[in-house]
Amino acid sequence: MENGQEYFDFTGTPLNIREQAERREHEILSPWAAFSDRTQGRDVWEAPCDIRPEYQRDRDRILHCKAFRRLKGKTQVFLTPEGDHYRTRMTHTLEVAQNARTIARALRLNEDLTEAIALGHDLGHTPFGHAGERALARVCPGGFEHPLQSLRVVERLEKDGAGLNLTKEVRDGILNHKTSGTPHTLEGRIVQLSDKIAYINHDIDDAVRGHIITEDDIPEELTAILGHSPRERLNTLIHDIVIQSAGRGEIRMSEEVYTAMRELRSYMFRSVYTNPVAKGQEKKAEAMVEQLYYYYAGHLELLPEEYCRMIKEKREPDYRVVCDYVAGMTDRYAVQRYREIMIPDAWDVY
Length: 350
Description:
This protein folds into 2 domains: 17-280, Orthogonal Bundle (Hypothetical protein af1432); 283-342, no CATH class. The chain is built from 17 helices and no strands. It is an all-alpha fold.
């Protein structure tokens, strides 16, 4: 409703709530926004909801799926940290979504689409962060990349193999969120940048908390441009995107700020992501993931029932289904399965 009046179609019939929301999008959003009523649709047709536009439905489906809930038990950067305030894959995802929505709202782009992509972009991540990803990339025929796995989660694995049947725009954003990707919507491009903005800044915050680096260790030539705290850097980066992108049909950053962000990312790789104190346990994690993969590849009958059905009824390759199972594990569950499989129980002779 607007000014207390319902919207009506050309026959004078009141529009339902979804149709009213779609009409408001055309009145409020930028011409470059992805409009909900112009989606390329879903692979399997579904009757529209009478309340929610299509991208809002996708956002809700992702939020309620099992893979999203498991993100709370998956490593972001630091394996098994002592402390309650280090990021997990879920808190990373929520921070990406918050940054992305801020930018999308400022540019009058579609917030529902932006948030759906952000919430779904890491659904395919492995236990133990990139250590688990590297392990599966080595042992799984055809390799492993988490954006492809995230897409597989929403298309093939959720809902007992039926998938979430998301719109093409959401799936495109999930698939193309890495630097090498090319999202086809401005909303997807926002998530692509917001992912980097989030992890660079929260990884610095976690590294300072873990006494790996201090704020003073960050090169002055970078903090002079971006800021001297996570708050200042987020403010600089988000404002730069909004200012540089406003009134244009593209998402961009100024050369100075973008270069500083890339150099800060390089600094984090040198000082944190390859730091033996922060990453000293990763070889153990990689070995654990590899051994879990090889064990289940040789004992397919021990896979959960829904994975066995994928092999027997849907003719999915054995190796891909084993990879699906191991990739979907949380850190704690992977350790539990490894302990049960690989470590002998004490033998009580009495």
